[in-house]
Amino acid sequence: MTRIILARHGETNWNREGRYQGQLDTELSPLGWQQAERLAEALAKLPITAVYSSPLSRAYETARKAAEKHQLPVEIVEGLTEIHHGCWQGLYAHEVKEQYGVELEIWQSAPHQITMPGGGECLKQVQDRAVAALEMIAKRHPWETVLVLSHDATIRAFFCYALGMDLANFWLFRQDNTCINVVEYLPDGRWRLSKLNDTCHLGSLIWDVDQKAL
Question: Whole-angstrom Cα distance, residue 13 to residue 28?
């Protein structure tokens, strides 16, 4: 069995502003840096043997904070990156609603049925690369505990696969900034979810506001 601590990156200013990031490389906000430090402290005493991250800096910098506690490098895995939101990237939530109202309604009600307009991805593409990335990591580290930093949509899509759920259930999972999830890769190739969206380490550094742009 491989235990993977699967966490989301810290808050960015675009998260707070309700702006679609997708694969644009946005930085952590001041709160995001504090959240990353709290995550690192929470994981400091665990027997983590490797750290992996999406190539986007908001995930990488969150991973780096935790990796420093274990004197480990951070390895980049492209498959862990966020969904490509196509022409929505860089737009505020209200702008997407005004300009792409029909597509947005599909995204919010039937996310498995849409490919992000303007050259973006569909959830199945995100899921396929996330599953491939996490299975690669799990097989590389049998009987070890590893840390993986990724993104909201990527983690949700992976959970649909891991739990045998259709991607239509994508919105049933919540992923707060620097939340801790724990999944175990079993010897028979199945996944077991043992912790979901744990934010106890954040204390007052969590803000209970649904982020508008995803």
Answer: 7
The one catalytic residue in 9, 84, 85, 201 is 9
Nearest Cα to Cα of residue 127 among 87, 96, 168:
168
* Active-site entry in 70, 84, 85, 151: 151
**Pairwise CA distance, residues 63 & 75, whole Å:** 9
Beta strands 48-53 and 74-76: pairing type? parallel
Under a CB-based contact definition with an 8 Å cutoff, are residues 105 and 142 in contact? no
pTM attached to this predicted model: 0.96
Q: Alpha-carbon torsion 134, 137, 141, 142, what sign?
A: positive
Give pLDDT tens digits for 171-185.
999 999 999 999 999
Q: Cα 73 vs. chain centroid, distance in angstroms?
A: 19
Any catalytic annotation for residue 84?
Answer: no
| Radius of gyration of the chain, Cα coordinates, nearest whole angstrom | 16
Is 94 known to be catalytic? no
